[in-house]
Specification:
Number of helices: 11
Helix content: 40-55%
Shape: globular
CATH architecture: 3-Layer(aba) Sandwich
Number of strands: 14
Distance between the termini: 33 Å
CATH topology: Rossmann fold
Structural class: alpha/beta
């Protein structure tokens, strides 16, 4: 855990999207700090699906330091009091969601963000953390090796797939608008592709499908040549980076979050996981729904110099992280059989 975590002792934090991989990882980090060091961090979690929340966060539901609200952030929020920090992590996050629920994808990143910012202003909350994405940079057209925070990439807005990156961009713009009109304090972590044991079963991202296949001892199915080169981050490292930026990031700034030692092509990921599983990599064409949600970016490597200035050092590089993830998926499958 980051050494700065003591600054959160006794604070109140609101998190949205808590049943997702990153939200769940954040709650686990904070609740483990409560359990180990009597930190007294009071966490309020919001998600739409209470049944999924009970399943994913059953360990914490009875804790006096955790409060759950079943609510849709696209609707007026329930009264929950004031908070020192709000972390907005609710979002559609994988290709099938982008193509099958394009309106919901946009709404959570725009209307949901506005509702939370309005709540923040009304209740005089301390700092807003908007979880953005590498996707806001669009395509790398060969004019840069890595994306720095001031890079402005190409996105064709007149496409279904643009709903996710464009709405993330607008969410960032909303934060700036509220800072101008209401003098709010905010920071924006821009996350790379994140993976780990908290991946949902219905996650349709390539790395998630690879991991599920490896855990089942099946061949890894690659639905392209696999030349796409991306930055990745293990979920626990990502959660700790978010908390660090929440505490130390400069107000109004965006920061890339990625593990510099975890850059890989899809073909390399597929082979790593095939080696872990003792299987083969095979090729298959994606179905129409999947293909409609795929990113067109072929190279998206995040420059993390700004984040590293806070002495952030990720602990779990891609080989170790994938092995750890597959082993945990296998363990959960055995446990529930």
């Amino acid at each position: 855990m980051i050494k700065e975590i003591t600054e959160l002792y006794g604070k109140k934090i609101l998190l949205t999207g808590i049943t997702g991989m990153i939200g769940r990882a954040l709650i686990r980090c904070l609740m483990e700090e409560n359990e180990k060091n009597n930190a007294g961090i009071q966490i309020t979690g919001v998600s739409r699906n209470q049944e999924r929340a009970n399943m994913r966060l059953d360990k914490y539901m009875a804790s006096p330091l955790f409060t759950y609200h079943a609510a849709d952030i696209n609707e007026p929020l329930p009264e929950m009091g004031s908070f020192d920090y709000i972390i907005h992590g609710a979002s559609n996050t994988h290709p099938k969601q982008y193509s099958s629920d394009p309106i919901g994808t946009i709404a959570a990143n725009v209307w949901g963000t506005k509702n939370l910012l309005d709540y923040m202003v009304k209740h005089d909350c301390g700092r807003f953390v908007f979880l953005s994405s590498v996707e806001i940079y669009g395509e790398n057209r060969g004019d840069t090796e890595t994306f720095t925070e001031d890079y402005l990439g190409y996105i064709d807005c007149n496409t279904l797939r643009a709903g996710y990156p464009e709405s993330k961009r607008l969410g960032e713009t909303l934060c700036n608008a509220y800072a101008k009109q209401y003098n709010i304090d905010f920071v924006i972590p821009r996350l790379s592709r994140v993976y780990g044991p908290g991946l949902l079963d219905d996650d349709s991202k390539a790395i998630s499908q690879f991991i599920h296949k490896a855990a089942a001892g099946e061949d890894i199915v690659l639905k392209s040549k696999g030349n796409q080169l991306y930055s990745y981050t293990y979920e626990e490292d990502c959660a700790e980076a978010i908390l660090l930026l929440m505490l130390k990031g400069k107000s109004g700034e965006a920061y890339n979050v990625a593990d510099p030692k975890s850059t890989a092509t899809l073909a390399e990921l597929a082979q790593i996981l095939a080696d872990i599983a003792g299987t083969e990599v095979v090729f298959e064409l994606p179905d129409e729904v999947e293909a409609a949600g795929y990113s067109t970016a072929t190279k998206a490597i995040l420059n993390t110099n700004k984040l590293e200035s806070f002495e952030w050092i990720p602990q779990i590089e891609i080989h170790k992280g994938l092995k750890k993830t597959v082993e945990e998926f296998k363990g959960n499958k055995i446990k529930h059989e």
